[in-house]
């Protein structure tokens, strides 16, 4: 379980996230929605330990992100919204580097690298430099790296952007399998159709505050005049 308790993040002249509380239960695919500038990426970066928390507490499977940062980070797999990293490395060098960071044994990493990169159709490109990859291939190599150490919690920031339909389907299937094991998939997206199809629960953020958290049935019951997520989203963020 992930718990955000009264979390606040300030930037000069702006409060990006204000007194935000959110609970993400085990065994769920949890969608995180909001317009640009609503506080989604700031929240995710605090959840993953990239940004310091100004006020409040974030607990990741019982580990305090402030007090036990390294232990908390080791159980998270994080896919950022930008995949332009380590461009001078070959694909296989990047994956081995990530495996080293997480102490993945050699025999395990070789099997996982082969399995993941074949699933995403980039196995044949592992000896090429990442800077030669298309945007979609860069996204696939980052996702493969994130999953190498089999983290309990997946935190994915716009993970489907740039993926071809086959790879997008593969990743969505993997997300469902992970949640079915009793683990967490938390992802942000702008693709409302994906949220309706895939998510067990959803939260909508605007102006750094949660506007709604619950499952799709709860949300549609609360806003009975709307019959789809797009209308609900527009209503909840109309002042965005």
TrEMBL record:
Matches recorded under Gene3D superfamilies: P-loop containing nucleotide triphosphate hydrolases
Q: Which InterPro entries match?
A: AAA+_ATPase, ABC_transporter-like_ATP-bd, ABC_transporter-like_CS, ABC_Transporter_VariousFunc, P-loop_NTPase
Superkingdom of origin organism = Bacteria
For this UniProt record, the keywords arranged alphabetically read as follows: ATP-binding, Nucleotide-binding, Transport
Record domain ABC transporter: where: 2-232
* PROSITE patterns the record matches: ABC_TRANSPORTER_1, ABC_TRANSPORTER_2
What are the transmembrane regions? none
Pfam families with a match to the protein in the record: ABC_tran
An annotated Gene Ontology molecular function:
ATP hydrolysis activity
| Official protein name in the record | ABC transporter ATP-binding protein
């Amino acid at each position: 379980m992930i718990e955000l308790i009264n979390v606040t993040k300030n930037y000069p002249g702006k409060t990006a996230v204000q007194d935000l509380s959110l609970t993400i239960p085990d065994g769920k695919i949890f969608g995180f929605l909001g317009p640009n500038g609503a506080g989604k990426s700031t929240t995710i970066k605090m959840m993953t330990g990239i940004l310091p928390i100004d006020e409040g507490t974030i607990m990741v499977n019982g580990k305090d992100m402030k007090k036990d940062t390294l232990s908390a980070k080791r159980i998270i797999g994080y896919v950022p919204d930008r995949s332009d990293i380590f461009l001078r490395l070959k694909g296989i060098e990047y994956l081995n580097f990530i495996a080293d960071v997480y102490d993945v044994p050699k025999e395990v990493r070789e099997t996982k690298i082969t399995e993941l990169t074949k699933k995403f159709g980039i196995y044949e490109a592992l000896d090429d430099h990442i800077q030669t990859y298309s945007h979609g291939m860069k996204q696939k190599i980052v996702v493969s790296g994130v999953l190498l150490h089999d983290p309990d919690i997946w935190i994915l920031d716009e993970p489907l952007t740039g993926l071809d339909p086959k790879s997008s389907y593969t990743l969505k299937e993997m997300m469902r399998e992970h949640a079915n094991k009793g683990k967490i998939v938390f992802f942000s997206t702008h693709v409302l159709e994906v949220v309706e199809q895939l998510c067990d629960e959803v939260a909508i953020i605007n102006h750094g505050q949660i506007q709604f958290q619950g499952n799709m049935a709860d949300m549609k019951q609360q806003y009975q005049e709307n019959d789809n997520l797009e209308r609900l989203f527009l209503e909840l963020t109309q002042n965005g």
